Amino acid sequence: MVRRFFKHKLLLDENMPPRGVFPRLNEHFDVKHVDHDLSQGGIKDASVYELARTASRIIVTQNVKHFKPLAGGKSDAGVIGVPPHWQPKQVDSQLTALLMRHRPGYFRGRYISLGE
Predict the structure, then answer these.
(1) Is 16 within 8 Å of 31 (Cβ atoms)?
(2) How many angstroms separate the CA atoms of 100 and 96, rounded?
(3) Dihedral Cα 63, 83, 89, 93, nearest 10 deg
(4) 8 DSSP 8-state letter
(5) Strand extents, DSSP E, the chain
(6) Along the chain (116 residues), what's the average pLDDT of each consecutive run of 10 residues?
(7) Which is it for strands 58-61 and 9-12: parallel, antiparallel or unpaired?
(8) Is 114 in contact with 86 (CB distance < 8 Å)?
(9) 53, exposed or middle or buried, with CB in 10 Å at 0-12, 13-18, 19+?
(10) Are the beta carbons of 90 and 66 closer than 8 angstroms?
(11) CA 42 centroid distance within chain
C-alpha cells in the first residue's frame, strides 16, 4: 500500500535561520519562521508553543531545553530539536527525510531530536 504524501506545517523558532536557507524543506512543506514570517520575534517560548499549537504546526528549534518540557498531550504541537552545530544543509536534508517518513499524528505532543 502506498502512503499518501502529507504536507506538514512547520514553525521555525527564532534561533533558526530564515526558511529560505532550507530549499528542500520549503519545496515539500509549509514552513514559517516565527520572526521573519510572522513578526513574532522576542515572544516567550510558551507563547511560541501556543502559537504553533493553535496553528497546528510542528516547532523546529535549537532551544531544546525550554521546548522539550512543553511537549505534552495529543492535541499539542510537536517539537523537533536540531543540534546547534549542524549546518543548514544538513538540517534541510535530515529534517525533510524525517518528515517524509511520518504522518502528522506521529509528531503531535512529542519531542523528537534530529541528533539522536
Answers:
(1) no
(2) 6
(3) -100
(4) -
(5) 9-12, 30-33, 58-61, 79-81, 111-113
(6) 73 95 95 94 91 92 88 77 95 95 86 87
(7) parallel
(8) yes
(9) buried
(10) no
(11) 18
